[in-house]
Amino acid sequence: MPSTIVILGTGGTIAGTAVDPSDNVGYTAAQRSAAELLAAVPALKGQAIECEQVAQLDSKDMDHATWQRLAQRAAHHLARADVAGVVVTHGTDTLEETAWFLHRVLAPAKPLVLTAAMRPASALSADGPANLRDAVAVAREPGARGVVAVLAGTVHAAADVRKVHSYRLDAFDSGDAGPLARVEEGGLRRFRPWPEGEALGLPVISEDVASWPWVEVLPSHAGATRAGVDAMLAAGVRGIVVAATGNGSVHQALQAALARAVAAGVPVVRGTRCAQGVIVESPAGARDAVLPAATAGTPWQARIDLMLALMSGR
Ligand code: ASP
Q1: Same domain as 52, residue 183
Q2: Is the pTM of this model over 0.90?
Q3: 185: which residues sit within 8 A by CB, 6+ positions away?
Q4: Which of 49, 61, 101, 303 has its CA 20 to 30 A from that of 94?
């Protein structure tokens, strides 16, 4: 029975510190190592847990090079016979993007658990230690698999997890799908099956991240014009995700510019700006659409899908 858990540190508020312990917002992210975060959780003392620092950044600055390395290191440890699961400490800002990226590339048969915190490690009411404890419990859960996020006692599947609040501790949500499970006193109350999917595989994500195609997200909004699309086409964009209003509608000025992008060989997909839901199309609409609807839930997920599709040729 594999029993080792590996914690991969990437930074974020969970590893952040402030000068004043009662300051929850004026802090610097990514100051403490994964090993220091582990040492701050008495409940994890004596457990078979290894730490590795993959990066040390504020996740607002997450980049493709870190994603590439993180996917590689996670895959390496998950392939070890003695490892039950891998935990990634991350910032909350782009956690949902990293979760979806890892899901699409690795779709692992063991648990790959992202966790984070809304308060820095130095805060009076730091939420990081409990989140880390819960993430390790999920990574140890027999039968657990796939990429999930564990925050505020809730387990979210990578496909559904969204940051929905800028400040409160319970800042994440799984929308219509609902949470995958709750962590209660170290035990799991599960509502849905563990996530599964087809892994694209590490060979798709070249170490030469400069070669990854530039795919941009562009919102449709009141007063939209063609200028943004024109500028991106001139600058060599390889794909565009339009963050469309409502059920996939796009401002007419933008629509015309995007149609020109498609004609020029730049794929364009629509995601919805709405906080919840996906674009629901009539079958005829889907067949005739110049700008197809994204299959993934958010524009940020659709950006990852389009980028990976361009890289894998699928
Ligand atoms: N800016 C921080 C980050 O994403 C926010 C956080 O972790 O809560 O790294």
Answers
A1: yes
A2: yes
A3: none
A4: 49
